[in-house]
Structure formats: C-alpha cells, structure tokens
Amino acid sequence: MNPSAPLDPFGRSIDYLRISVTDQCNERCLYCRPAGYRGWSAGPEHLTASEILQVARAAVRIGFRHFRLTGGEPLLRPDLLQIASGLSALPGIETLSLSTNGTRIAAVAEALRQAGVHSVNLSLDAIQPDRYRQITGGSWEEFWEGFQAVLRAGFKTVKLNCVLLRGVNEEELRPLAHFAAEHQIPIRFIELMPLSLLQEARGDLFLSVSEAKEIISGGQNLLPLPDHRPGHGPARYFRDPHSGAVVGFIGALTTPDFCGSCNKMRLTADGKIRPCLGRHGETDLREALRNHTQDAEEILRQALANKPQDHEFTRGYEPARPMTALGG
Ligand code: SAM
Fold first, then answer.
1. Hey, is 73 helix, strand or coil?
2. pTM exceeds 0.90 for this model
C-alpha cells in the first residue's frame, strides 16, 4: 500500500504509469497490430527520452511509484536503455517493469537489468512454432533465445502473458502452463479486449477466462493462491494442479467489478495521457510540454480527476486506434 498514492474520484489509489515508448512493433499480432498498420513513424511524434523523464518526474511528485515500459515493441526504441536508467534513478520509483515480445531482447537483457529494470513480462501466445508465427507473424526461435537471455539475466520477476484466442490457441493453453511450470515462472491468460481495428479479431475470437480455466485444469479445480493478487496488475492467481504452474487470469470483460481495483494510467508514445484503456478520453501532454502551456503535473492531476469508473469494452466500445498505439 502506498500512502502517498493519489486518489481518483472513485477512491482508487492510482500509482502505476504504463509508458509506451513506441507504437512500432516487429510483430503483427492479429489482435493488436494487424499487418498493414502504419501508425506514425518514429520521430517528432514520439516523446523524447527527456520528455518521458519529465513526465515520470511529475508522476513521482504526485505519488506514482510503479512504472512499466511498453509499446508497440519497446525494444525497437534505440534509446530504451537510456530511458530505463533515467527512470530507475528517479528517487521514489519502487518498480520498473518492461513488457516485450522477447524476440529482440537477447542482446540487451543483462544491460536492461543493470539499467534498473526489475521485472519483465514476455508475450507468449503459443508454444508450437507454426502457431506462434500464425498469431504474431514472428519467430519462435527468436522468442526462445530472448526468453533464455531474460532468465539468465536474473530479473526479480519474469512472467508470461498469453492472450486467449478462440479457435486459435486453446490447444496451446495446457502446454503453456506446463512450459511456465518447467521454468518456474507465472503465466497470465488474458481475455481479448476489442482493441484491434480488424473486425474479425474481436468478437469471434473471444474466449473467457472461465473457459480457459476449464481447459487448463481439465475439469479439476485450480487452487486460489492465498495472496490472490500479488504484483501491481489486475491478474487473479491460482495453482494449476496438473502442471504445478502459477496461473493468473485477467478477465477484463467477464470479471465482475474488474475496474474496481484499477490502479493505473497510460502515457502513449505520442504523449497522450490515457486514464482508461477502454475509453477514448486522452489529454495531450506533448503539445503542452513543447509549447510550455501547462506543466506535466497539472495535466496528470486533471487526467486523474477525469479517470472514468469503468471501461466500455462490453458497451459497444469501438477502437479508434489499436492496442499497439495505446501501450499494452
Ligand atoms: N510488444 C510488447 C509485448 O508483446 O508485451 C508490449 C506491448 S503489448 C501491446 C502488451 C501486452 O498487451 C501483450 O501481452 C499483448 O499480448 C497484450 N495485448 C495486445 N492486444 C491485446 C488485446 N486486444 N487484448 C488483450 N491483450 C492484448
């Protein structure tokens, strides 16, 4: 519990900022960044490293303590190490995490840990190389190389993230749990959120966390872990009696009152503060910073005051830009 965390209008402590450092990605996951997505090119649209640090300092001043670097694929950002070491050196930061697809991390895993990254989340939607390629367009071998480098580097926490996809990766769920158990790391299964611009990558592919629990446990009960919700994210954790794995579930669409424990806001790569992933409202920080019209602290406070109670994913939310542009 962070006593200095700022509160939103619904009394939730908000002390976690997810910072997207680029909207570009080397993969093209069908639910996130479909093939053909152009977005904007790296350059003046992206916040610079020093602008990101300026926002993070303001966030720390108002009580934020947990930061995650994400994207797009953050490893595509040439100055990622500089951003990570700048952030980890800020007094007041308690955790600095990274979300990555893992395919480009092998060469810099150790340097990232030395730069102060505490924990790494790796996306892994399938174990079979063909299916991995079908979903992501990427290479399982590159993932595997990155994964091993991440384990060798000795981060405090490493987790796997798998998006549940009906008709695509149900057969992968149990092997994925076994893979996680073998490497003694937790795996989280995430409900597909309607954030792709491709219509077919929304409703039809949706598989709920309760269906996933059935598949993974083979009808046995998953055992709730005593500390049901470790970490700073929204996952609920269980022990899978089959594999022994710690399995987490992020049921953004089907878990009642999912948003009741929300603790985060997002900073998009183009410098917008997004208080809720499942609502369109954003405030433009980049222009305010560049034109000196308002300071970052003031904008963060305004965004907090406008944080909505819940997302609109189940109430006809239509994405205007895909997940890769928002920061996962
Ligand atoms: N490229 C990095 C990665 O793979 O982790 C960081 C960005 S990615 C957007 C962050 C996480 O969001 C990944 O675990 C990804 O699977 C998840 N994600 C992307 N689109 C999603 C969607 N439509 N629904 C649920 N999760 C999604």
1. coil
2. yes
Distance 295 CA to ligand 1 centre (A): 30
Q: Which residues sit with their C-beta closer than 6 Å to ligand 1? A: 25, 31-32, 70-71, 73, 99-101, 123, 161, 163, 190, 192-193, 195-196, 323-324, 328
Tens digit of pLDDT for each residue in 193-242? 988 776 666 678 999 999 999 999 988 889 999 766 555 677 889 999 98
292 inside domain: yes
Domain membership of residue 75 as a residue range: 16-162+259-326
The domain that contains 319 carries what CATH number? 3.20.20.70
Pocket test for ligand 1, best of 123, 150, 160 (most atoms within 8 A of CB): 123
Residues 6+ apart with CB under 8 A from 137: 27, 28, 29, 35
Tens digits of residue pLDDT in 252-302? 999 998 999 999 999 999 999 999 999 989 999 999 999 998 999 999 999
Q: How many domains does the chain have?
A: 1
